[in-house]
Amino acid sequence: MLNPNHNKVIYSGTGRRKTSVARVQIIPGSGKLIINGLPGESYLQFSPNYLRISCTPLNILGLDKDYDIYVRAEGGGLTGQADAIRLGLARALCSINPENRLMLKSEGLIRRDARIKERKKYGLRKARKAPQYSKR
């Protein structure tokens, strides 16, 4: 179990971005963010951009200090994980109150970003970068 508060109501959502997966659980509380057992600020390396991205759904709905967020994030880097947390949090907030969905959907927070790294092809240096052409 991700959180220590077993007697409270738990709302959960899963978010994915690139190769990152974030399982998000929210419970009524004081607004703290715990990612993989660490405070959210230290896990996201005190980056205001990553913290802002992660908590966007709560800020839009004005629920910043109403819920504690417990996250299990894996795979990818911090950018993918922050976006995965945002999607998981938005889905969890939709399970609390279906009316939240309209507001989050108008901001584009419900849609999963399906862009992933393109595979490398043989004969090329990267997915599309070809070796330099030599005429002779």
UniProtKB/TrEMBL annotation:
Keyword Hydrolase: no
Keyword annotations: Chloroplast, Plastid, Ribonucleoprotein, Ribosomal protein
A GO MF term: RNA binding
Compartments it resides in: Plastid, Chloroplast
Recorded superkingdom: Eukaryota
A cellular component annotation (GO) from this entry: small ribosomal subunit
PROSITE patterns: RIBOSOMAL_S9
InterPro entries the UniProt entry points to: Ribosomal_Su5_D2-typ_SF (IPR020568), Ribosomal_uS9 (IPR000754), Ribosomal_uS9_bac/plastid (IPR023035), Ribosomal_uS9_CS (IPR020574), Ribsml_uS5_D2-typ_fold_subgr (IPR014721)
GO biological process per UniProt: translation
Spans through the membrane: none
Record's keyword annotation contains Ribonucleoprotein: yes
Family note: Belongs to the universal ribosomal protein uS9 family.
Name listed for the protein in its UniProt record: Small ribosomal subunit protein uS9c
